[in-house]
């Protein structure tokens, strides 16, 4: 009897496409919610890094340093761009030497090499990673999205200083150079996430196809 009952249950499941559709919709909802959580986690993680300097994330300052030391430090500028964005991106200056606490304005240059308008957003950090908590940006192109027309180029400034407190950090004794690095990526909007296509296997389940 148990064998017959088992066969009956399997047959009922196969003959009930509505059940398969509900399962597929449930799986799709979970997948999309996970994408949404990942999307929300990006700005939260960035905020955490900006507050703590974790991972070489720089700090944000509202004004210039009130203290400037006679000691100097080298700052190197690095630039990278995702191939998907189709931009050229490079620093105008490769390296400078400034006094610790001195405010400096550096420029990066970007050009849209594609045939369509595109918008990019940048990630950034400094190395050594532990120097991030002492690298203060007053103004930066990385605070906003950048939109370029085909062939358009633009110089983007970043105003910064190195906090004089860095000289009291024993872990950074002997560090003479800090590298500021940016990477541009295509802007991923919430709308794009909402229209993300489901895998083919999920679509088949929704239509009842196995």
Describe the structure.
The structure is a single chain. The protein has 210 residues and is of the alpha+beta class. The chain has a domain of 135 residues: Ctag/Cox11 (Ctag/Cox11 (Pfam 04442)), CATH 2.60.370.10. It contains four helices and ten strands; from the N terminus they run ααββββββββββαα. The strands form two sheets. It has a five-stranded mixed beta sheet. Strands 4-2-10-6-8 form a five-stranded mixed beta sheet, with no helix packed on it. Helix 2 packs antiparallel against helix 4. The relative contact order is 0.20. About 16% of the residues have low confidence.
Q: Name the CATH architecture of the domain at 57-191.
A: Sandwich
Q: Give the overall form.
A: elongated
Spatial extent as radius of gyration: 26 Å
* Secondary structural class: alpha+beta
User: What's the average pLDDT?
Assistant: 77
CATH-defined topology of the domain at 57-191? Ctag/Cox11 (Pfam 04442)
What pattern of helices and strands is seen along the backbone? HHEEEEEEEEEEHH
Q: List low-confidence stretches.
A: 33-56, 190-198
Corresponding CATH superfamily of the domain at 57-191: Ctag/Cox11
Under the CATH scheme, which class of the domain at 57-191? Mainly Beta
Per DSSP E runs of 2 or more residues, the count of β-strands stands at: 10
Query: What topology, given as strand order, has the largest sheet?
Result: 1-7-9-5-3
> What is the makeup of the main sheet?
5 strands, mixed
Q: How big a fraction of the residues is strand?
A: 25-35%
Give the number of helices.
4
Span between termini: 29 Å
């Amino acid at each position: 009897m148990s064998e017959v009952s088992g066969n009956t249950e399997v047959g009922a499941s196969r003959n009930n496409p509505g059940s398969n559709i509900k399962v597929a919709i449930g799986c799709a909802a979970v997948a999309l919610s996970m994408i949404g959580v990942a999307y929300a986690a990006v700005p939260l993680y960035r905020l955490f890094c900006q507050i703590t300097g974790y991972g070489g994330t720089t700090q944000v300052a509202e004004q210039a340093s009130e203290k400037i030391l006679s000691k100097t430090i080298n700052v190197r500028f690095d630039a990278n761009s995702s191939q998907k964005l189709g931009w050229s991106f490079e620093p105008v200056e490769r390296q400078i030497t400034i006094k610790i606490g001195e405010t400096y304005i550096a420029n990066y240059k970007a050009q849209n090499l594609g045939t369509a308008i595109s918008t990019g957003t940048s990630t950034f950090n400094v190395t050594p990673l532990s120097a991030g908590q002492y690298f203060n940006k007053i103004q930066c192109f990385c605070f906003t999205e950048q939109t370029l027309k085909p062939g358009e180029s633009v110089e983007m400034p970043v105003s910064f200083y190195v906090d004089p407190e860095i000289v009291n950090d024993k872990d950074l004794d002997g560090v003479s150079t800090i590298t500021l690095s940016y990477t541009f990526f295509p802007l991923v909007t919430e709308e794009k996430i909402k229209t993300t296509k489901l895998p083919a296997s999920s679509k088949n389940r929704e239509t009842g196809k196995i």
